[in-house]
Amino acid sequence: MADTPTPTTDLRQQLQGLNLYLIGPMGSGKSATGHAIAQRLQYRFFDTDTLIERIVGKAIATIFAEDGEATFRQIEQQTLSQLAAYQRSVIATGGGIVLERNNWSALRQGVIIWLDVPVSQIYQRLMADPAQIAQRPLLQTPDPQAALETLHQRRRPLYEQADLHVIPDPADSAETVADRVLAALPTALRDPRDRPAPPDPSQN
Ligand code: S3P
Question: What distance in Å separates the CA atoms of residue 12 and residue 160, rounded to the nearest whole number?
Answer without folding.
Answer: 25
